[in-house]
Task: inverse folding
């Protein structure tokens, strides 16, 4: 990891002809082959395609063309992003053999910017989980300690960046699935404002919460990737139609008003050293001229409960299409209904089934108002409470995850304990706001801790400014 | 047998004639090779997202104006969840409790029929079950064509305001004429671009609560709609008379047997677990879109019929025939604009011309005889140049070859003889060589006289080469015979 070039440096070197994209890709492939057996971060390595693209980029540079701001930068893609002709599995048996006939908007934008997709990374099946242990293809391990989980659900992408396979990766964040693994693996992870990044080609878990975002080793690299993928897309009706302003390179926090969310920081279950990291980051920011104080966002306490009704409800509908009729796994039955049932029984793992059942129940006649309807009201409250907080504060701070990375198997028998590891990240998804995790400090086990910087909708610029300031405090 | 009051409500699904589908750019086209008009979106492939077709909203706004609907500031889509292999996503994107159009009505034969709502939704694919009885449960295998998946539909739900099959037919017929007029669908019940489901219930008195309703499906013409409703009324009456309990169910109309059959209940009961579609944003038509809709709705059938009745002096049934057949009406209006009298043009259009079109399976647009030609024909008849029978001759030729009626008359020398002097000479000549017949006429009884007179009239027409004005010849003949 140390000494590896950042994306910014790599792109500059490739664009200027100082370094060949081919050598960058070969180095990445070497890093993958060195550690992949122990880590299992990747479902598919796109070696041939990556080398071919690298050669094309080198040829373009040789012809005096500019391949783009991410020229020659290898990138890992969470395996729920569609790439035409490449296996796209969601780490589920049910998508066995499926190769999408189209490419996700974000991947199109990466290609147009000269980036080189090099691997499709492991995840909790259909992005449902917090440890990447729910993958049908086996867990990914934390590069800092292979007895521990990398977090999830984008654990493969976080591990790929953390292990130095690639400087950049994409994940998706429905309740913390980028930020929590970023914290566990000691990298930067960003959940953009809902609608800022097109979801076209991201295989849906919970449509109203899902958002694609960057992993990187530095805040600047994350900003570069963010600016490559974001912006309106007419293929996604929920994409925000206005063009985003550039993020900027600022790190000056003087005069900024920063609130530490009490309900996510000063409560039982947050490890002391995690709280201490947030405190240290806050006082560092204060030292740089920011005003820091505690803020209460009471409805945050109900975020987890609301999330585990809304997300499964949407998932139960989004995942209905995996019925064995058109693509992926099919297990034959006496009639079509039996074929559907057998296919789904064999194709989905336990956590996916649990959430489909939860969601189906929450939407059922007679229960809708008490569960899904009530959860939507909580969501409205959370949005209202955050709006009030953002009248007084420019950004908010909290831990990204309650603890440092836990051991494999530690929570697999207790879904609720597993769900609790997203308690700090979920409110942002319910509100549709932006948040990111910046590595800051280490825990008792010597593993990375992440500090979460939260910003209102479309507040990416100030969020990155504060994140850079936190990064500089390290 | 007790007489019951019948209560009927209709759900009409209309396929919209947009260029592309509801949520993607695939062609909305009937009859293409299976699975050729498909893409990741209408196949519901993982990761795909819907984007609403603006034209569908514009069409719904036109419908809103034409059916006197309220269009609330915004409406939303819901997902209707159920498993069926013809649904690519295993849910249908539809509208539920916040549809685009609410609270409309139309007048049918002087009665106001309330229309509860109209909402936008996507059509499903089409399944063909191979082997077995052609039903999904006993088929060997099934084929699915997703060309139809994602075709835009408007579902128009009436209030239970109809009391007879006749009235239900009238409502559908009026609705069809309106939809054709505003041009949002080709409304072909036979091809399935307009599908009507009927909810039928009976009750002893109009003050009683509504009876148990039964939904009947699979009627593919107005005639079968009427027959199906009557058959269902009969079935329910017999059951109620013998105090049987009517169960709420969906029944399938069997056109050949002329009865309805109970269908197997839909898989997994009817809990569709509706919830707001998170992949779409609310539909909020702008004031500009509403204004355009108000200004683009053409004259509607009811007012058009009234106008033709009063301007052309035609009867209500002719007016209905014309207005229900937009192309024929356009043709007739063009003929009138070219100088033909409305009444005469209508007579020809709803008579000989419509007969010819039906026989040929053709359409008014394809007629060789242009509206100007029909206007000319009508004028030739009005000024006695042609008798009705000569005019039919001329029409026949003009329908087959591109010539104007006057040309035919001139070339074939068909102009009617109207000159009284000429005709009198003709009468003298014919009577002169038929003295026997005159004698027999004189001696004959009523029946014989009629027969002989007919013979003489025939001789006169024959001798005139069918050109003698029959009215004048009749008159002259009467004078000569001293009758």
Result:
């Amino acid at each position: 990891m140390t000494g590896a070039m950042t994306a910014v440096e790599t792109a500059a070197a490739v664009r200027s002809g100082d370094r060949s994209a081919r050598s960058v890709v070969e180095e990445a492939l070497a890093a993958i082959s060195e550690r992949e057996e122990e880590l299992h971060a990747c479902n598919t390595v796109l070696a041939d395609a990556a080398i071919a693209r690298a050669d094309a980029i080198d040829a373009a540079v040789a012809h005096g063309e500019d391949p783009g701001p991410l020229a020659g930068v290898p990138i890992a893609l969470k395996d729920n992003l569609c790439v035409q002709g490449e296996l796209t599995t969601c780490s589920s048996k049910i998508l066995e053999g499926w190769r999408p006939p189209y490419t996700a908007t974000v991947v199109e934008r990466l290609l147009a910017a000269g980036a080189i997709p090099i691997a499709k990374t492991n995840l909790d099946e259909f992005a449902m989980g917090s440890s990447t242990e729910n993958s049908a293809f086996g867990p990914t391990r934390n590069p800092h300690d292979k007895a521990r989980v990398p977090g999830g659900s984008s654990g493969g992408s976080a591990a790929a960046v953390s292990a130095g396979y690639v400087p950049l990766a994409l994940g998706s964040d429905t309740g913390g699935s980028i930020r929590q693994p970023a914290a566990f693996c000691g990298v930067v992870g960003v959940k953009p404002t809902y609608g800022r990044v097109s979801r076209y080609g991201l295989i849906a878990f919970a449509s109203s919460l899902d958002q694609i975002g960057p992993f990187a080793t530095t805040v600047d690299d994350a900003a570069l990737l963010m600016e490559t993928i974001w912006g309106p897309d007419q293929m996604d009706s929920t994409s925000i139609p206005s063009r985003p302003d550039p993020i900027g390179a600022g790190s000056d926090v003087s005069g900024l008003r920063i609130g530490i969310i009490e309900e996510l920081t000063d409560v039982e279950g947050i490890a002391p050293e995690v709280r201490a990291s947030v405190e240290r980051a806050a006082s560092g920011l204060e030292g740089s001229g920011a005003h820091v104080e505690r803020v209460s966002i009471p409805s945050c306490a109900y975020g987890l409960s609301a999330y585990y009704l809304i997300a499964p409800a949407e998932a139960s509908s989004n995942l209905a299409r995996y019925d064995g009729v058109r693509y992926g796994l099919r297990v034959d039955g006496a009639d079509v209904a039996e074929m559907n049932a057998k296919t789904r029984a064999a194709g989905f793992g336990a956590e996916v089934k649990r959430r489909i059942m939860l969601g189906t129940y929450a939407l059922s006649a007679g229960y809708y108002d008490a569960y899904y309807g009530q959860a939507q009201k909580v969501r409205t409250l959370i949005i209202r409470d955050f709006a009030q907080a953002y009248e007084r504060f420019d950004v908010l701070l909290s831990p990204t995850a309650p603890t440092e990375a836990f051991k494999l198997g530690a929570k697999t028998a207790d879904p609720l304990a597993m769900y609790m590891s997203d308690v700090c990240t979920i409110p942002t998804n319910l509100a549709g706001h932006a948040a990111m995790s910046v590595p800051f400090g280490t825990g008792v086990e010597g593993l990375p801790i992440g500090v979460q910087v939260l910003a209102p909708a479309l507040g990416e610029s100030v969020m990155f400014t504060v994140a850079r300031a936190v990064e500089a405090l390290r | 047998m007790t007489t019951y009051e019948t209560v009927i409500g209709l759900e009409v699904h209309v396929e919209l004639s947009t260029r592309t589908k509801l949520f993607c750019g695939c062609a909305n086209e009937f009859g293409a090779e299976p699975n050729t008009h498909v893409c990741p979106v209408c196949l519901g492939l993982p990761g795909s997202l819907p984007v609403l077709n603006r034209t569908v909203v514009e069409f719904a706004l036109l419908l809103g104006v034409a059916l006197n609907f309220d269009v609330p500031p915004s409406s939303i889509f819901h997902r209707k969840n159920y498993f069926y292999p013809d649904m690519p996503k295993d849910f249908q994107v539809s509208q539920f409790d916040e549809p685009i159009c609410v609270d409309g009505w139309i007048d049918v034969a002087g009665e106001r029929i309330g229309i509860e709502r109209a909402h936008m939704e996507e059509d499903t694919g089409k399944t063909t079950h191979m082997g077995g009885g052609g039903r999904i449960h006993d088929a060997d295998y099934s084929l699915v064509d997703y060309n139809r998946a994602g075709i835009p539909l408007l579902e128009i739900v009436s209030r239970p305001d109809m009391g007879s099959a006749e009235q239900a037919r009238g409502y559908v017929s009026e609705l069809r004429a309106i939809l054709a007029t505003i041009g949002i669908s080709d409304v072909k019940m036979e091809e399935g671009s307009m599908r009507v489901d009927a909810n039928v219930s009976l009750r002893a008195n109009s003050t009683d609560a509504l009876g148990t309703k039964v939904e009947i499906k699979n009627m593919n013409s107005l005639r079968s709609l009427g027959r199906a409703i009557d058959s269902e009324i009969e079935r329910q009456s017999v059951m109620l008379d013998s105090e049987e309990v009517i169960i709420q169910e969906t029944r399938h109309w069997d056109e050949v047997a002329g009865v309805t059959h109970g269908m197997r209940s839909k898989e997994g009961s009817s809990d569709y677990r509706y919830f707001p579609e998170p992949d779409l944003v609310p539909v909020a038509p702008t004031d500009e879109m509403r204004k355009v809709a108000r200004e683009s709705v053409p004259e509607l059938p009811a007012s058009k019929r009234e106008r033709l009745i009063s301007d052309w002096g035609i009867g209500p049934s002719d007016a209905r025939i014309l207005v229900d057949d937009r192309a024929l009406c356009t043709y007739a209006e063009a003929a009138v604009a070219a100088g033909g009298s409305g009444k005469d043009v209508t007579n020809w259009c709803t008579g000989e011309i419509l007969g010819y079109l039906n026989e040929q399976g053709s359409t008014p647009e394809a007629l060789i005889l242009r509206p100007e030609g029909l206007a000319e024909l009508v004028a030739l008849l009005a000024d006695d140049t042609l008798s009705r029978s000569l005019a039919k001759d001329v029409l026949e030729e003009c329908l087959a070859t591109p010539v104007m009626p006057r040309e035919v008359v001139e070339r074939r020398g068909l102009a009617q003889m109207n000159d009284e002097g000429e005709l009198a000479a003709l009468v003298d000549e014919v009577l002169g060589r038929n003295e026997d017949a005159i004698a027999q006429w004189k001696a004959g009884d009523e029946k014989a006289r009629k027969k002989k007179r007919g013979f003489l009239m025939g001789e006169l027409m024959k001798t005139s080469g069918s050109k003698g004005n029959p009215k004048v010849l009749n008159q002259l003949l009467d004078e000569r015979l001293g009758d």
